[in-house]
Amino acid sequence: MLAAALLLSQLSLSHGVAWVASHTKPALVCEVNYLQPCQQLIDSDLHSLLGYRAAMAIPLTHPSYAGVVLLNKIAMPTEQSAYWYLNSISLTLDKQKQLSLWHELGHLHQSLSNTVLTDYQHEVYADLYMIWRIALSQQDFKLAWQQYHRRNIAMLDDPDNISHWTVPAIALMLEHYSPTALVQITDFNQIWQQLLPQIETLDIERLSNYQRLFKQQYHASHNRQVPRYLQPLQQSLSLYLQPTMNLYQFDLF
Question: Which of 31, 54, 76 is the last residue in one of the domains?
Fold first, then answer.
């Protein structure tokens, strides 16, 4: 089953359409210029649903299909950038089409579990699923670290990106598993169930406090005087940010 899923996931999108594996059901993937096959499965106008987004997943309550994934390569970023204390930092983003596909398949995979998650939990699930797929395909964490750095730099650019700041969960996954270990796991939900109780930012108040700390300490539009109630989080935030800052030879400690 796993080998078949990986084979399906590598199908060419050269003609803009492909079937890919998503857990126990396939998903139909359509690029923005070839939406008609996906449109046959969805009542709503797909161009309007996708808008200016780079990708989106639409789950289906269908006996044979998990859903559809829409991809808009033109809207996919090629870099993530921010200002760090008057220094411009940027990260080149590789393999965005493939990573976007795996991320959206993560959303579809979760939709098949019948478990209700918050919007933030959905993003955590999709990013961790993506890292699992990276390990299965690449047998290393190079692209996983790219996602880690991307999420950090996006927060430094704009703390309102907190809804996609999955770094604490990614850090936990990279600490607990090696690529070799992930390759041996055939069901992503095994990983999710093991990590779920340990992901600190699934606590809404704690996540909100991290956002406040980003604004107070690192965002240019705010002063850097950190309120006392946020100070206990400074150490852990620095630990989450330091791997990204190492790329630019900045030391937080």
Answer: 76
**By residue range, what is the domain housing residue 36?**
1-76
Spatial separation of the C-alpha atoms in residues 153 and 158, rounded to whole Å? 9
Q: How many domains does the chain have?
A: 2
Same domain, 85 and 34: no
Query: Residue 140 in contact with residue 133, Cβ under 8 Å?
Result: no
Is the pLDDT assigned to residue 72 strictly greater than 90?
yes
Q: What is the dihedral sign for C-alpha 193, 19, 68, 174?
A: positive
Q: Which of 76, 107, 137 is the last residue of a domain?
A: 76
Based on the fold, state whether residues 218 and 148 are members of the same structural domain.
yes
Task: Note the pLDDT tens digit of each residue in 160-212.
Answer: 999 999 999 999 999 999 999 999 999 999 999 999 999 999 999 999 999 99
Residue type, 164: H
Q: Domain check: are 176 and 243 in the same one?
A: yes
Task: Kindly state whether residues 70 and 86 are assigned to the same domain.
Answer: no
Q: What is the pLDDT of residue 218?
A: 84
Residue 147 lies in a domain: yes
Residue 253 lies in a domain: no
pTM of the full predicted structure? 0.91
Question: For residue range 101-157, what is the model confidence (pLDDT) as tens digits?
Answer: 999 999 999 998 878 899 999 999 999 999 999 999 999 999 999 999 999 999 999
